Amino acid sequence: MSPGLLLIDDEAVFREDMAMLLRDEGYACDTAADGEEGLRRVAAESPDLILCDLVMPGISGVELISRLANLCPDSALLIITANATIETAVGAFRAGATDYILKPVIPEDLFRKIERCMEQRQLQRELRYLRRHISENATGTTIVGESRVIAAVRDLIARVGPSGSSILITGESGTGKELVARALHHASGNDRAPFIAVNCAALPRDLMESELFGHVRGAFTGAHRDKPGYFELASGGTLFLDELCELPLELQPKLLRAIDQQEIYRVGATRPTRTHVRIVAATNRDAQREINEGRFREDLYFRVAVVNIALPPLRDHREDIPLIIEHLMSRLVTRLNRRITGVTNAAMRALMSAPWRGNVRELLNVLERAVLLANGEQIEVCDLPREISGDDPAAPHSDDLRTAVRAYEREHIRQVLAAAGGNREQAARRLGIDASTLYRRMKELEM
What we know:
The protein has 19 helices and 14 strands. It has helices at residues 12-24, 35-45, 61-71, 86-95, 107-139, 148-160, 177-187, 208-213, 230-233, 252-261, 287-292, 298-304, 321-336, 345-353, 359-373, 386-389, 401-419, 424-431, 435-444, and strands at 4-8, 28-32, 49-53, 76-81, 99-102, 167-170, 195-199, 238-242, 263-264, 273-274, 278-283, 307-310, 342-343, 378-379.
């Protein structure tokens, strides 16, 4: 696929001659007559390479380069100038330029510079990917838990990960389907290749085909240049299609062909584009019911679900909750810069007995809230939402008067602490006792 170039130059003859030269060489080249137009085109099209004159009316050269670099950091910037000095070259490079070339332009030098810029751009993209990949390996592909069901999921990932076959991940919302998809990609042995995650429910329906398969210039209003879709961006790697059952019925045959034939048609194209993509899909719906009710093609299901990895809800492996909490807490305290060392026994009991209808995603939400609100070094029951802590003075868990009073006192202290923003000294004043008495009573109540 030829890189998309944008040439910004105020000299009309030079601009058209250069554009013709580049197009004859096979590049897809658009043009802009000044800096303002160039900024608008870059914002709309995100070209692979920008060729920009350094001296033009309006925006100054260095300022334009800086704004272009900030607007589209993935684009390479090749400066064209007739008056290069040390000062202008240094200023251009500091502003974000990749290289420069002198006027009059010699075609061979230009093509060599373009090739060098594109190589450098690719190296920078690979470096960013590797940095992100290292970070994700540290926290983003770890399947936490020692229960039998989680051990079975890890074993299945290890067995099918290297195969390259299409995988369907099923499970309730919040069970970690994207985490498993990333783990499959990591286990493929090709984890330096792209991992592209796409939420099918979030794609605009009228642009879904273009987003997945790309489009060619002129395919529809606003298609000013060729644009690759997610299939091409993921080529050589993994394309994760989350919420697959949200895919419109009319688009499903095209997805089936793309998987079967390993080729796609961009919108408006007359020739196919070869791709080599591993499909990992996920859904929280009952796929068989979707098939029976005519909303999902059975042949596509069979092609996607070569192996089905079913993720259990959190309530089915509660024994893993302490390990999951420890894993999530280590990330939260670092991100939120909080000095929290752990969870009290009482809070852990509350967390392990909660229904967790939102699974691990809900648990993460509750822990983040607790880390932010905790006043001490540990998360306590009073730091948890009432629906998790289970404290309800109107419905004590025993007929014993002492137990009922104890439950009421715990809830009352919790509410006053919450109203005081977790400040124990302020809460003690509201309760009409001193802080040491409040500390002692909270300890006795296992708060």
